[in-house]
Every structure is written in structure tokens, then in C-alpha cells.
Write a structure and sequence with these properties.
2 copies of one chain form a homodimer. With about 190 residues, the first copy, chain A, is α/β, with parallel strands linked by helices. The first copy, chain A, has a single domain, classed as Rossmann fold, CATH 3.40.50. Chain A has 5 helices and 11 strands; from the N terminus they run H-E-E-E-H-E-H-E-E-E-E-H-E-H-E-E. In chain A, the strands form 3 sheets. Chain A has a 6-stranded mixed sheet, sandwiched between helices. A two-stranded antiparallel sheet of chain A has the order 1-2. In chain A, helix 2 packs across helix 3. Chain A is globular, with a radius of gyration of 16 Å. The first copy, chain A, starts with a helix and ends with a strand. The interface between A and B is large, with 44 and 44 residues.
Chain lengths: ~190, ~190
């Protein structure tokens, strides 16, 4: 998606430690016009795939998943990062390690919201090592749901998670794919 | 908003401790068609109010804020619940106590995303004691931004936060207002 690459080049900022800051349009602040375009792009990529549900994980994937859900007209489920008082009853849970925050957590979803009748599109903002996505795939597996594929705003290809998921047979669509980045240059894969 | 009341009556569930579970359409799972309607309702309530930005707090307000942002065409900013490695530079911070989770946290937003040129619509899923909203109002005050008002999916009137904010001069619009609830009956204020 050319507009995503332009937004990254004009508004993104590379921070020490290989972090790409896109807070002005994708994270802390979301450009709503662009958000709608992302939703339309994702819907277009997965049209005809029989998607019945979108699955994401709190919190930075929620807006993108909601935008895609609004265009596709399917429910959006978000996995929580730990068990809270608002999740009652039976749950599926999968362990995830976050490199960004240096912590381990459980991705948790109620068994009510993911079933063996679902065909799931997994949506997230970033794909790096792929740990969060593996956790979400694990949740789908526990529910007996089919995974139609994944839609990601920005993939950091150099961290390998996306190619590993593709090699494992999953469809992974990223709106921008970064092959390399330094504080002066960002190179995209096309 | 009549549809919100219907959704609460048909799909909501009152849990012990005065928690209203609306996970099937508003929290863990979001009904996308209804989400779009919420966005349209909020946009309609605040049309002509000069809103330049929507402010919410992670994570359960994000989808509603995104839906309203998409309809209104204004950026959505979400305050984070603690300082993470993805928020660099200067920030505004306000203390918030969460009754639901029994914890205190900081609501944090980068100074880049909230300015004295902004007229802010604050959006959240629930309004009970109003602590989170007070934190978000505090952030707007620190930035010198004007608060146009608040749009809330569900207000628990019996916890008093909404009426307190109205008494303080804020415009508070709630899509459903619950005057009382037990596990067998929910009464709405109209």
C-alpha cells in the first residue's frame, strides 16, 4: 500500500533499539481518514475469503481491526493481555513474549467469541518476530477456527516473523514491508 | 440511543460487584455494524461543535473512538495507561484510579498530539465514577485544549460520575444511561 510507505517516510521516526515510531498516524494518534483507507485495503485483500471474524490483540491493533471490521461487516474480537475481572467463564489462553516491552503475558479470549464455525482474519499493527501472531493463531487452533490469514499495517521483514509464518503456510498481507531501517534510511520490500 | 438499550437488554449480563458485561458486542467482541452506528450517532451529537480531535484511553474505548473518528474525519488520540518505550519525548500525565481493576495508573499522552489549538471530544465505553474522564480532562487542561464534551457508550448513572461532570459544566452524552441494575432488571434514564 503506497500510502502507508509514504506515511512512514514522511512521519515515521526510527528510535534507538530498532523501534519505528509511527505515533503521529498509527499509534498514539490515528489519522482517521487513513484509518478508513487501511480498513478498505484490508477488506479488499481478503474479499472472497469467507472471513467471519477479525481477531486482534489489545491495544494498538484495535483501531485497525475496527476499521477493517466496519468495512467487512464482521465482528471484531480482541484478545486481552491478561485475565481481568471483565472476562468471566471459559477462556482460551496462549503465552506471548513481547520484545518491545520485555515481558511475557497471556493472550486471552473468551470461548464464547471464537468457535469452530469461524474463519478468522488476524489483524495487528506491527509484525516483527511474530510472537503475538503465533499466540493469536494458537487461540484459533484451540477454538478449532480456520485462519484465513493475517493483515498487518507494518512488517519489519528483517526480524523474520512474517517470512516464518509464510513458510508455515499462512497468508500474511502487510500494508508496508520494511526490509531495513536506520535513522537516515528506510528500505521497503516490494 | 434506543439500539444501545436494546443491545444491553438482550445481550448484556450483570455480574456480581455491579459489573455490566457487554463483551459480546462492545468489549471483547465488537459488533461492527453496531460500531458504525455508534460512530454515526456520536458524530451527529457533536456536529457543529468544532471538534478537531477525539481523545480516548486504551483499550476498550479505542474502537468506539475510531468509529467516531472515521465518521467525523478527525484524528483520534489515545492516552496510554503507563509510560512505555513507544512514547518518547515530552508527555502530559494524569493520575487515574480504576475501580474495575482496583489499581492506580497514569494516563499519558505525548505533548505532540494535544495542543492549545484543539477542541477535544472525549470518548469512552463506560462512565461510572468518572475517574478516567477526569484524567482525560486533566490532560486537555495541561495542553490548553478546549473540551467540547464527552461521548460515552454506557453510563452507570447510579455511580454519579456523569452527573458530577454535568454539574461542573461539561456536556456529557451517553448512548445509554442506566439508572439501576440488578441481575434481573435494568432501568434506563431517559
Amino acid at each position: 500500500m503506497q500510502r502507508m510507505e509514504e506515511m512512514i517516510l514522511t512521519q515515521g521516526k526510527v528510535l534507538p533499539g530498532g523501534i519505528l515510531k509511527v505515533g503521529s498516524f498509527l499509534n498514539q494518534q490515528i489519522d482517521s481518514v487513513f484509518l478508513r483507507e487501511m480498513g478498505e485495503e484490508i477488506a479488499s485483500l481478503y474479499s472472497g475469503s469467507g472471513v467471519t471474524k477479525i481477531l486482534t490483540i489489545e491495544s494498538s491493533g484495535i483501531a485497525i481491526a475496527a476499521a477493517a471490521g466496519i468495512v467487512m461487516g464482521v465482528p471484531v474480537v480482541f484478545a486481552k493481555k491478561h485475565r481481568t475481572s471483565n472476562v468471566d467463564g471459559a477462556i482460551y489462553a496462549a503465552p506471548v513474549h513481547s520484545f518491545t516491552h520485555g515481558i511475557d503475558y497471556q493472550a486471552v479470549v473468551s470461548t464464547d467469541y471464537l468457535t469452530d464455525r469461524d474463519t478468522v482474519l488476524i489483524v495487528d499493527d506491527f509484525l516483527a518476530s511474530g510472537n503475538a501472531l503465533h499466540g493469536l493463531v494458537d487461540l484459533c487452533g484451540q477454538a478449532g477456527a480456520r485462519v484465513a490469514g493475517m493483515a498487518i499495517a507494518i512488517e519489519k521483514c528483517f526480524q523474520g516473523g512474517g517470512d516464518e509464518l509464510r513458510a508455515a503456510g499462512y497468508r500474511v498481507e502487510s500494508l508496508a514491508m520494511i526490509d531495513s531501517m536506520t535513522d537516515t534510511e528506510i528500505t521497503f520490500r516490494r
